[in-house]
Design brief:
heterodimer; A: 133 residues; mainly alpha; 2 domains; 4 helices; B: 710 residues; alpha+beta; BirA Bifunctional Protein, domain 2; 5 domains; 7-stranded mixed β-sheet; 5-stranded antiparallel β-sheet; 22 strands
């Protein structure tokens, strides 16, 4: 074995399941459990240098349902605003000025609503972060 | 074209950067997609708020697209790139905002995407770097831009083939993107920003650290040599750092590796650095920076033991040094705190602190071999000054916008253009040559194509031309023994240069031999061998034959692969020059041409000879007409009869006054007349001699004959 840093081992399925169960019991990963077991079984295991800890994994982000719903709504609102802008532009270019004026009023309202949504999401997230910490 | 991307949480720094008008940059906000806000700052905040339902805390993907500065259709290039990019990463329906930047006449775009889709799914950015490079190659191909070598060329080529874009994959191969090392940027954005902040160029740091590495043998000498440049080594969080004189930090391993790469030297690996710097404990980065900020009056540190690093083995000395410093510092503090002390005045405290520092410095310097440091420093500074001088020379005739100092470590010899030679020449450290002609705006290379290729390409990019490489085409040897390739001694090379210069050739010495210019070709002379680079021109043939006639005993032998045309060209020239040529197979046509040429030459020689004899005879005829008996004797019998018998005195006088050119055409007629006259004169009496010896000479000759037996 020339590469001492990495090797593969074919195992029976039963052994693999047993390893997985033992790793779960020991509250560690399978590879860490196997490594610890091998090191413990070696004669010079006690003097071997321990491996450095693994880098911390990025935490899983699962947003609360209410914030997620508001966020999805905000996305729809943004797309609706964009579509309304295009419609208003087409009306102006098509000579439908009354409709254009009405749509411009709608756009202003939509933008104001969207700004409120963004602010609301920001406040809710701040509360969530404060609660988590 | 170049593109980059970063992922983030969407803080205010991004919008600040995108809306920055620093250095006269013009900003144009591009139409957004799926967003309600009107300004960019609110748009980014909106993207962040709308992405909360996705399972990520970094929903912002910032992409910048940089078309080539000379591109006339920047908007189209940016559009093509974004279309392919969105298709590649599934961002077509995602919210988008962005800006166009125009700075220094160069337009580029920044686009901010939401990575979270409508259904909350986060776009997959796996292998984003390589996939982005693929999009760049596609855009370059579709917009007719020059291919730029990336970091993942093979992966991109394989991915393009899998996707059926075979024409782009083939074009990449043709462009040579898969040859050699992958493209490596000169510096990172962080390094550039740091250099701008500290005013310490990254090239200068690399040159210094490489010079220190070369000049050192162990950790201590390395630290000492580095200290001469105002830099120190520190221990960082992940490894060793280099702290430059401006306080900027650099990874020591990466700086050394980059410097060695730029210099074309062997790789300096992290393991090599670890080995050399083993056994010494360097100060932590925070300690060094704190020490610098606490001593604002000193531009450079005093070179104390602590700054250079404390050897792990000499614990007692190290502790002693620290203790000394601590005690000095403690005294200072006590003095400053004691209101009764006579040194509490500002001037007294400062003087005392200065004395304490001087003592600590003297103690530290006592343990350092100053002579050694000075000698090494001088040596390194001399080396750097020489390199700087060459870089300045290169910058003197290089095109505007070319950074000659980036190639400081590559320059071995620089020859600026002169009134006799309009092209400037650069010889790089690995033996390659670059020729830049400012008037013709052309760049040529020959010899080893290592750093020369890089330098030439950099010049060509600025000039806007293609690099023309004079490849080795053939070689000629004096004899079979010359095939052994041996290193040529410096004295031999100098002798070769002198030999060629004496014969009117432009020759230059190089480590691998003597290079001489022969028209557009370059010849490498190593004594018994000539290499032709850049094709067999007439000047190259002349040089080869000069060498063969002057140094190889009028013979030469062809080596390597020669085309039939080249063999014919050299063979006939050698035949004309009288040089024997071996291992050469001239074509039948050129041999026939040579035979015709030879026959024509023989005929011409014969004609010239006959004309010469006619002229001589005409001269004798004129002389005979003037009464010269000796000249008349040299005439043939019929001409003797013509001038002696046929012509009367008046006619002879008239003949003597004629020029030779008038007589030569009539010689045939004179001979015929003379023959008739001779026949009519000799018919009754037999053969006569028109001009005989004078009677008075006869007895003398008879007497000589009679005396001869005695």
């Amino acid at each position: 074995m020339k590469n001492y840093k990495f090797w593969t081992q074919r195992l029976p399925v039963e052994v693999g399941r047993a390893l997985e169960a033992a790793a779960i019991n020991a509250n560690t990963s399978v590879s860490r459990f196997v490594l610890n077991s091998i090191v413990a079984a070696l004669p010079e295991g006690s003097v071997l240098k321990p491996l450095p800890p693994s880098p911390p994994r990025r935490p899983l982000i699962i947003p609360p349902d209410d914030i997620a719903a508001i966020s999805v709504f905000g996305g729809h609102l943004g797309r609706l605003t964009g579509a309304t802008v295009q419609l208003s532009k087409a009306c102006r270019e098509g000579g439908c000025l009354p409709e254009h004026n009405a749509l411009e009023t709608e756009i202003r309202d939509l933008r104001a609503a969207k700004a409120d949504i963004v602010a609301l999401v920001g406040r809710l997230r701040a509360v969530e972060i404060a609660a988590a910490s | 074209m170049i593109a980059g991307a970063t992922r983030g949480a969407g803080g205010t720094a991004l919008s600040r950067h995108l809306l920055s008008r620093k250095d006269g940059q013009k900003v144009l906000v591009m139409p957004s997609r799926g967003l309600a806000a009107e300004d960019l700052k609110d748009q980014i905040a909106e993207i962040v708020a709308d992405a909360v339902h996705g399972r990520t805390d970094r929903p912002i993907h910032h992409v910048h697209v940089d078309p080539p500065p000379d591109a006339s259709n920047s908007n189209e290039i940016i559009g093509v790139f974004l279309r392919h990019y969105e298709a590649e990463f599934g961002l077509r329906d995602h919210q988008r905002a962005g800006v166009f930047h125009l700075k220094g006449g160069r337009q580029h775009a920044h686009v901010v995407y939401s990575l979270v889709g409508r259904n909350g799914r986060v776009a997959d950015l796996q292998h984003e770097y390589a996939r982005r490079e693929k999009i760049c190659r596609i855009t370059e191909f579709e917009c007719g831009l020059r291919f730029i070598k990336g970091r993942h060329n093979r992966a991109v080529e394989q991915a393009l083939r899998k996707e059926g874009r075979i024409e782009i994959a083939d074009a990449m191969i043709v462009a040579g993107l898969l040859d050699g090392c992958p493209g490596i940027a000169h510096s990172t954005p962080r390094q550039r920003a740091q250099a701008e902040r500290t005013a310490v160029p990254i090239d200068e740091i690399r040159s210094a650290v490489l010079a220190a590495w070369r000049a050192s043998e162990d950790a201590r000498s390395f630290a000492v040599a580095l200290h001469a440049f105002g830099s120190v080594v520190a221990t960082g969080r992940k490894g060793l750092l280099l702290v430059d004189r401006g306080g900027g930090t650099h990874s020591l391993n990466r700086t050394l590796a980059a410097a060695a790469r730029v210099a074309g030297e062997d790789r300096i690996t992290a393991a090599a650095v670890r080995r050399r710097l083993a056994g010494i404990t360097f100060l932590k980065l925070e300690e060094i920076l704190n020490a610098r900020t606490s001593r604002p009056n000193t531009g450079r540190s005093a070179g104390s033991q602590d700054e250079l690093g404390t050897p792990a083995t000499s614990t007692r000395t190290a502790q002693g040094g620290r203790r000394g410093d601590q005690s000095a510092r403690r005294i200072d503090e006590l003095a400053a705190a004691d209101p009764r002390s006579s040194w509490t005045s500002a001037g007294g405290t400062a003087a005392r602190r200065k004395r304490a520092r001087d003592r600590a410095t003297a103690a530290a310097l006592g343990r350092i071999d100053l002579q050694q440091i000075i000698a090494k420093g001088k040596h390194m500074m001399k080396e750097l000054k020489a390199q700087d001088y060459k870089a300045k020379m290169l910058a003197g005739f290089a095109p505007r916008g070319f950074n000659a100092h980036a190639f400081t470590l590559d320059l071995h010899m620089v020859k600026a253009p002169s009134e006799y030679n309009l092209a400037g020449r650069i010889m790089v450290t690995d033996g390659g040559w670059v020729e830049y002609n400012p008037s013709a705006r052309s760049v040529r290379t020959w010899g080893p194509s290592g750093r020369a290729k890089v330098l030439a390409q950099a010049l060509a990019d600025v000039v806007g031309c293609e690099v023309y490489h004079l490849a080795k085409t053939a070689s000629i040897a004096a004899n079979a023994d010359a095939l052994k390739v041996t290193k040529v001694a410096d004295d031999t090379i100098k002798g070769l240069v002198a030999w060629w210069v004496m014969r009117g050739f432009d020759a230059a010495a190089a480590p691998d031999g003597c290079w001489l210019t022969a028209g557009t070709a370059r010849l490498l002379d190593t004594g018994n061998r000539l290499e032709v680079h850049g094709g067999l021109t007439d000047q190259a043939v002349a040089a080869i034959l000069t060498k063969a006639k002057g140094a190889w005993g009028s013979s030469l032998k062809l080596e390597g692969r020669w085309t039939q045309a080249e063999q014919d060209h050299l063979w006939i020239a050698a035949m004309r020059a009288g040089v024997a040529i071996h291992n050469c197979g001239p074509s039948q046509g050129i041999q026939a041409a040579w035979r015709r040429e030879k026959d024509a030459a023989t005929k011409s020689a014969r004609t010239i000879s006959s004309v010469k004899s006619e002229i001589i005879e005409a001269q004798h005829l004129i002389d005979a007409a003037k009464g010269d008996i000796e000249a008349a004797k040299k005439l043939s019998g019929n001409l003797q009869a013509f001038v002696g018998v046929y012509l009367d005195d008046e006619q002879r006088k008239e003949l003597a006054a004629q020029p030779i050119a008038e007589i030569v055409p009539h010689l045939g007629r004179f001979r015929r007349i003379g023959t008739v006259e001779l026949e009519s004169y000799e018919a009754p009496t037999g053969p006569k001699v028109a001009f005989v010896e004078p009677e008075k000479d006869k007895p003398k000759q008879d007497a000589e004959k009679t005396q001869a037996p005695k």
